[in-house]
Design goal:
The complex is a heterodimer. Chain A is 48% helix and 30% strand. Chain A has helices at residues 2-40, 77-89, 94-117, and strands at residues 48-49, 59-76, 122-130, 134-135, 143-159. In chain A, strands 1, 2, 3, 4 and 5 form a five-stranded mixed sheet that branches. In chain A, a hairpin with a 7-residue loop joins strand 4 (134-135) and strand 5 (143-159). Chain A is elongated and about 85 Å long. Chain B has helices at residues 40-48, 53-77; strands at 7-8, 17-33, 49-51, 81-93, 96-110. The chains are: A alpha+beta, B alpha+beta. Strand 2 (59-76) of chain A pairs antiparallel with strand 3 of chain B.
Amino acid sequence: MEDVRLLIALEWALPVALLLLGYAVGRRRERQHMASLKERERILSEVLVTNLKGLPAGWQAGEAWLERGEVVISSDAFKTFAARLRGMIGGRIHALETLVERARREAIVRLAERALEKGATHILNLRLETGNIASAPAEGQGMVAAEVLAYGTAVIARQK
Amino acid sequence: MWEGAMILTNTESVPGHDIESVLGLVQGSTVRAKHLGKDFLASLKNIVGGELRAYTELLNEARTEASRRMVDNAISLGANAVLNVRFSTSTLTQGAAEIYVYGTAVVVVKREEGG
């Protein structure tokens, strides 16, 4: 009898513990990431990122090349659980919205950082591609991750 | 590497250059296994959240490889630039992704200053 109770307790305790762990650690990591993004996004005042096809008037183009920034960010146990629950009743999944937002901002910042390193002043024709949010749902327990690629044409330009 | 020898952009021209001739479509692709579910570290990350660095790196390498193949293709046509480059990813089977990159191979010449 004791053994059975222990088994049942374990069977419930483990997923709940993982959920709590995911909630606590995941939330902290998300906050840290948001803070780091806010800091690093200042770079965007040094490199002008647009999805226009040409330079603004008054700029003379020098070198140009294709630059990329990419990132894959995993969801945490709590977000995944909340998303599955939401999936059953439908509606807005806030937990995944912030996940994709983080991935997108991170990809753009990386793109800008790499371009700036090589002296770029502008990034033209920015394109964002988002991969599968939930990939490989093998045996019903797929991984939930946001995969974002940002790319564009980096240009070293000087004012005429 | 090929960087520097070949100009890649995803705009319809190279800033500061004129297109002399258009040679046609060039492409490159590579297929990579995702191994996401089998990766122990990735499963841990799936509990606490955070970047899957190994996977980011995998995709980065795959895109570099696909681009290299596209550039090889462009070199064989005698191009010095590839314009309007697009990346695309497709899932072939569970756990395998195809990274595909394509663009238009052209010959460009640097525009005269003030011209």
